[in-house]
Amino acid sequence: MVRPTVMYGARAGDGPPADLPQLLCGVRQFSETRYGQHLLEFHQLVGTMPFVRQVFYLHAEAAESNFAPADLPTATRFSYMDDSAERSLRVHLNPARAQRGVGVGGSRPIRQPKGGLPEGIGCFICPTTIAYKSGYRQLYIVHTVNGKELRFLVNPYPLFEGHMTAASVIHEPQSWGPRGDAATPGRIERTVMDVYGVAADLPGSLVMFNGVDAGATIPHHYHLHVMQHQPEDLFPLQLAAKEAAKSNAARVISDFATGTLLEFVNHADIYPLAFFRAVGLAGAQALAAMLNRWVDLWPSATANLIAARENGEVTMYLVPRDREFNRAPGMEGVPGGLEVLGELVFTSPAECERVLNNRITHRELRNMLQGLRPEKVGLLVAE
Fold it and tell me: Which pLDDT score, from 0 to 100, does residue 106 have?
């Protein structure tokens, strides 16, 4: 019997579906010659199921085949309040994430791809490396989002329960292309709508896109991060959006092309980063237009995109970033989507020691995020 995994959109404690069948991994022999057959059998098992159910079985299969290290320590979250005790930032202590640069399989040499779709040699999210580095254990599902096929993979170094990487089937870069290129606006719109589409297809999910030099650890292969998220668990960025709206500190921008509104928060007392918020499909389209504007405006523009459900609707956030100022002072890694949400991921022994010995403060975390704030972000909404 597989270990229970909470389904996306379900409440914690609901447990597995009542009709859970026996998965195939219990009788498998994991080898290169059998891998293709195992993948085919798994796709036949889940192929007619709703996407949410397919994701459940993908995680159940990963748990049973044990392709990821089984003894990874769990992540711990800490909250730090400011002097007013009204605003907080978080630390996400996750030493296992430090191993992700090597990947499952450690230093096992990488096999060359054997034909088929173009692959990146040694790319952790291309099929040949997925199979070989996992000891022929890691399976995946392919789901069409926004007219594009994405390969959904269980992340072996998770940030949260249900963490997946959703990677393009074709090996293509994370970058939306150079400023001024004719194809760049289309790539930007596709990226925004991919984030929206995955969040729409997976209720109870948090979806993130990290731009190049904005937290993307595999910049040579386009991918998103997807993980389970309960709507009531609001991140500091989401709480800042609510505070800004309540205090009339959010600037409301009309997007006449889509007939929708964008909220722009650029108030350092409320949140150390400037960000946009939009609701629904039209809101996502308006965010794509704003991101295009940022790329046109700033030579080293990059960004983080986040989508989650708020009040039952897919709500998106755009955090403009600058590739030349991508480091947070006092933090060893390159901050990505979770950091700009107000939850800073610490993985190194030195970082963990600071937290566990109570040598970190809200002010320090705030300064880390402020170091990511693009100097000219206000030009985006200049009159």
Answer: 59
DSSP string, 65-130: HT-S-TTPPPPEEEEEE-TTSS-EEEEEE-GGGGGGGT-TTTTPPPPPP-SSS---TT-TTSHHHH
Q: Which residue in 31, 33, 61, 32 sits closest to 46, CA to CA?
A: 61
Distances (CA, A) of 351 to 94, 355, 356: 10, 7, 9
**Res. 170: pLDDT tops 80:** yes
CA distance 331 to 329: 6
Q: Average pLDDT in the 70-81 region?
A: 78
Tokens 């060359």 label which residue?
112
Provide the residue ranges of all domains of the chain, joining segments of one domain with +.
76-98+231-381
Average pLDDT over residues 308-322: 96
Return the structure tokens found at 311: 């009040």
User: What pTM was estimated for this model as a whole?
Assistant: 0.92
Helices and strands: H and E segment counts in the chain = 9, 13
Helical ranges in the chain per DSSP H: 32-46, 51-65, 127-133, 184-201, 236-246, 280-297, 337-340, 349-356, 362-370
Is residue 9 within 8 A of residue 30, CB to CB? The reply is no
Specify whether the CB–CB gap between 230 and 212 falls below 8 A.
Answer: no
Short-list 295, 238, 297, 289, CA closest to 259? 289
CB atoms within 10 A of CB 106: 9
Average pLDDT of every residue of the chain: 87
